[in-house]
């Protein structure tokens, strides 16, 4: 059943290309609540700065409380996403039809005038970037079992996007800030399908270029080959970060030679992987299992995309349903350091407008805007 709040308060809604009014068009949309801008503004107390909980490449996120008391996260999309209302609603319908325990729930949206806003369920424990890898890590005890469940949860959510829904969705931006935790520390993937709301030349990749480059599969970053295997690479990096409790790239020193992934491979070959496992885990951890998870990271991040397993197989490896075969463990593909150096933003990444980047192999098609790295063309969006 289509649900309405006080949206579409225009006096005469324009007819859509199907020759019916927008309200009629909208009434065909299933499972999605349409909010008025006024209602969301009220929920977020006029979008006051104190209610802002984050800012990403797609726009700002505010914490809000709806009239019925439901807490929501309200994502106000930046102007790059102001596509037509009809196209916007079509994409939202598709995104909202994806339902899984490990995906953040999209309640609805607002598409009024220039406003394009998404309304998600509010997750109490913020993102992994904040809690496990960031400044708030001491507030939550991430035991081995909690980490394990988070890894399995993310893998299940991704397997759903990749293999269960039609057309398949490549997330494109699997990283710690896009993994949110509910009150029971269940992992939920956020921002799935969002790239579809932006025109191809605004395709969002990252707000934290150096940090996110740490998640980019080499074939995607260098040759712009986007397939599910690029997400699987990013998942592998995330897996390692969860086990080690550290970011793959040191954001304070993004050009520092060694990534966590490179270091892990080096230690694996020396038989010293235990050095890398988060020291705070020592007491309660099944170290064999932690090492197995690092091996699964290598399986996912190997250079050859074809050899990376599907997510459903990764889930089985994580849960122990299938063994991690030694022959699948291969040297991770890591972007050449020169690529990272060439793609560090020159100038102030946070200032509005386009900044230039130094010459790079992708110079012709790469822009940095608002600290966001964008590719002008992406192939194979849904493969
Ligand atoms: N549903 C939600 N519940 C609680 N907090 C949220 C929710 N969605 C987003 N946030 C918070 O807002 C922050 C910003 O999210 P946003 O997706 O805009 O940026 P990001 O994840 O850092 O980067 P990107 O734009 O690449 O996804 C998140 O890191 C998280 O802390
Ligand atoms: Mg995000």
From TrEMBL:
tRNA processing keyword on record: no
Keyword line: ATP-binding, Glycoprotein, Kinase, Membrane, Nucleotide-binding, Phosphoprotein, Receptor, Repeat, Serine/threonine-protein kinase, Signal, Transferase, Transmembrane, Transmembrane helix
Residues reported to bind ATP: 75
SMART domains documented for this protein: S_TKc
Main location: membrane
Molecular functions per Gene Ontology: ATP binding; protein serine/threonine kinase activity
Alphabetized Gene3D superfamilies for the sequence: Phosphorylase Kinase, domain 1, Transferase(Phosphotransferase) domain 1
Transmembrane segments: none
Keyword match Oxidoreductase: no
Membrane topology term: Single-pass membrane protein
Annotated Gene Ontology cellular component terms: membrane
CDD domains cross-referenced by the UniProt entry: STKc_IRAK
Domain Protein kinase span(s) in chain numbering: 47-340
Localisation per UniProt entry: Membrane
Protein family (similarity comment): Belongs to the protein kinase superfamily.
Protein name (Swiss-Prot/TrEMBL): Protein kinase domain-containing protein
Organism: Daucus carota subsp. sativus
Lineage: Eukaryota, Viridiplantae, Streptophyta, Embryophyta, Tracheophyta
